[in-house]
Amino acid sequence: MKGIITVIGKDKVGIIYAVTKILAENNVNVEDISQTVLQDYFTMMMLVNLSKLNCDFNNLKCQLEKLSEEIGLSVKIQREEIFHYMHNI
Amino acid sequence: MTLYHNIFETISMIEKEKLDIRTITMGISLIDCIDSSGDKARGKIHDKIIRYAMNLVNVGNEIENEFGIPIINKRIAVTPVALIASASGEDNYVEFARTLDQAAKEVGVNFIGGFSALVQKGFTAGDRILIESIPQALNETERVCSSVNIANSKAGINMDAVRLMGKIIKRTAYLSRYRDSLGCAKLVVFANAVEDNPFMAGAFHGVGEPEVVINVGVSGPGAVKRALEKAKGEPLHVVAENIKKTAFKITRAGQLVGNEVSRRLGVPFGILDLSLAPTPEIGDSVARILEEMGLEACGTHGTTAALALLNDAVKKGGIMASSSVGGLSGAFIPVSEDEGMIQAVKSGALTFDKLEAMTSVCSVGLDMIAIPGDTSESTIAAIIADEAAIGVINNKTTAVRIIPVHGKDVGDTAEFGGLLGHAPIMPVNKFSAEEFINRGGRIPAPIHSFRN
User: Cys-Cys link to B349, which of B40, B191, B211, B297 (CB 3.0-4.6 A)?
Assistant: First the structure.
């Protein structure tokens, strides 16, 4: 199972570090990252592999939500299928 | 990079444009609950609903969490209760409605549909008892929804049923008079009712349906409006193309969710109903889509054409995206549930007669319209007859969900609360149709019913 993590908000030091730290702790591998900064707004999308996730999906989601509150950026994880499915047959 | 582009688009559709899965509706057959003892039948109904739907709400929440797409309602539709209850020999079916209500509460769904009768060609004894039980059932239960099919293109219009429904609607309005006649918001009178519609209040589980099934309703007026904003000033075929593309994406999201719910519950996936179903929230309005096409206000000349374009393009996009599109699929125009419609009524742009014209091209009918409380039974019946005629002649589903708000008149507003919204009372024609309605009988099936 793969997931997409999106991080959107005001740019600051250590965003990628904070996100990937949680991923590493939960045994989630990052397969691809795309990021841009548009007028101070940091936008990152990460394709992650959840097949060896060592907790349940909801738990990981809660950890990322908690981080989202701490750093004041929106951090979301969604299963990857939704993005493929909506745009392709 | 296309993946990342898609991600952005999807997230903005969900977060800014309010794309959502409007409902996951589990259809459950109650045929095997028929019993000559009413108590035994109700016991079986209760247990069967609990058995199948126990995990419906949990699974819905799980999927919402994982895919990050809101699933607003989880609901249940059952076999028309008139068919199930008649063997009991009881002369009032309110107790069956209470059983449904109780089961719905226990599994945590907000509506359960199927307190219904299909009388397009005539009444059985059970049909009559059920219909007579509707006012009390809707007043004394919270989550039960009721529908009656009084016509179809194959059988014509049962005018005795039409007359009876005029009376039933008035009585329902009276019994729930302290809540702005809210009971009527849970009662739909259909022509050409579909058996797999997941949307309330008109959902029931048809007799041709399997034992249990998952039907999904998706919505997204906001996403369609946004797509049109990008095509400002373009000719209308470009507008249609944009609507189609958006409808495609919305339908795909529904298909994914439907498959996933079906897999996790071990229940077959039935159909996906892509209906632009508005809510009273800003940015979730069908009227605003029509206005985006260039109408000063919804209801002015040109509205029917704009709605026809919208409804057809939505269906085309949906059909392309999924091989199991069904239900009603199109655009709903419920007045009280659509912020733009409410405004249009208030400003005088949208009238009752225009709404009737719009129903000849939308996916359902006269929906959530508040009318004066002193409107006569025969006028309500005549409104139903007109609407049924549009459906029967044009081979489409039409419905009437109308609320004669007890004690209120033009100039007042009815408050229903929540998703049902609020509605200014609209005037109806003051001239009588009483003699016409009192004739009863039936309007024969149209000539094109002999397609064989």
Answer: B297
